[in-house]
Design goal:
Diaminopimelate Epimerase, Chain A, domain 1; alpha/beta; single chain; binds manganese (II) ion; five-stranded parallel beta sheet
């Protein structure tokens, strides 16, 4: 069994490979609070473009995640969006590549900086209401944006230096929950196998991504799990990040990565949620589904979105006010997904 770029996206993949190959100076960006997929794709793109003699810089709406810095050749490839260097670089560029989102609000302060540039958008999220305009390689069937970028680099015939392979591997590994979520397909494994055969150091990557957390993350996890709540009659479990400790520890949203997997891991849970009140009187909610509930639609009721099995929303108001309404909506979504006759049937 070998991997081939799916037929339905092959033409667009070639177009994107050409657009990238013809650029001279490129701005790379991704969504607010970049994850392993966004950061991994940026690192892979940077190295791949460099291999073809094309200059690129990463200009993100929020800082490049510390835990993925090892994928970069140095921190000078990242430009802080809050400094004048960002608009200056964007003005001198001839292409912007947006990875792991296609939505203008998700790139935050970067949107006005790249509004005049031709854009390539590579993403695997369900399209939302405020799409960016450009050449779109968007496919929700891809396990990660890294899968689509792998297609693009394959179509271009490489090159495949180590940083390209490591970035793509991290993108796919993190978005599939280390190959255990339902988006992990034969394609995910075949691509991973190809990257391994090209020399990716699996043990080193796993160690860097999963065994280098700061102590504050574990302290925050302990306190967050203390706030676990459930409604198992309706297949719900949720946790709430204690705001005072989050502030006291100077934690970042990066520290919360994977917290929602704990309520999700309880037997009988169909929808898991993580609540966090932010400093500006908003509440962030992460949704995970391990049953038939489409949490992209559930998050959409609150102005958010994402994927069918993983989504998020930022809702106005303090957590005590927001949480009851979200839980009520989740309850309704579970009941609607089960249908009246199968209400008590386990998933
Ligand atoms: Mn992704």
């Amino acid at each position: 069994m070998s991997y081939r770029t799916p037929e339905h996206r092959a033409a667009r993949v070639t177009e994107v490979a050409d657009a990238l190959g013809n650029a001279r100076r490129v701005v790379l960006t991704t969504h607010i609070n970049a994850d392993g997929d966004g950061a991994g794709c940026e690192a892979a793109l940077l190295a791949w473009l460099a291999g073809r003699g094309i200059e690129a810089r990463i200009v993100n709406p929020t800082p490049f995640p510390e835990m993925f810095e090892f994928l970069l050749p140095g921190l000078d490839v990242v430009i802080d969006a809050k400094t004048p260097a960002a608009p200056a670089y964007c003005r001198s560029a001839d292409l912007a590549v947006v990875v792991d989102t296609g939505e203008a609000p998700r790139v935050g302060r970067i949107n006005p900086l790249i509004s005049e540039l031709p854009k390539v958008i590579i993403d695997h999220h369900q399209p939302g209401d405020s799409p960016l305009a450009g050449l779109m390689l968007v496919d929700t069937q891809a396990c990660a944006t890294g899968e689509l970028l792998y297609d693009v680099i394959s179509a271009a015939g490489g090159p495949w230096p180590q940083p390209v392979c490591a970035g793509l591997y991290v993108a796919i590994m993190t978005d599939t929950g280390s190959f255990r979520f339902s988006n992990s397909t034969p394609a995910s494994h075949l691509i991973a196998a190809d990257l391994l055969s090209r020399g990716v150091n699996l043990e080193d990557i796993f160690e860097r991504v999963h065994a280098t957390w700061p102590l504050r993350r574990i302290q925050l996890l302990r306190a967050t799990l203390d706030e676990l709540d459930t409604d198992l009659d309706h297949g719900l479990a949720w946790v709430t990040v204690p705001r005072s400790l989050f502030v006291e520890l100077r934690a970042t949203s990066e520290d919360l990565e994977g917290f929602v997997d704990y309520p999700r891991s309880i037997r009988g849970v169909q929808v898991a949620m993580l609540f966090r009140q932010t400093d500006d009187n908003h509440t962030k909610v992460s949704f995970r589904s391990s049953g038939p509930v489409d949490v992209n639609a559930l998050a959409g009721q609150f102005g958010g979105g994402g994927h069918i099995k993983a989504a998020g929303a930022v809702i106005e108001g303090p957590v005590d006010q927001v949480r009851p309404a979200v839980i009520e909506a989740a309850r309704a979504a579970v009941l609607a997904a089960a249908g009246p006759a199968q209400r008590d049937t386990p998933p």
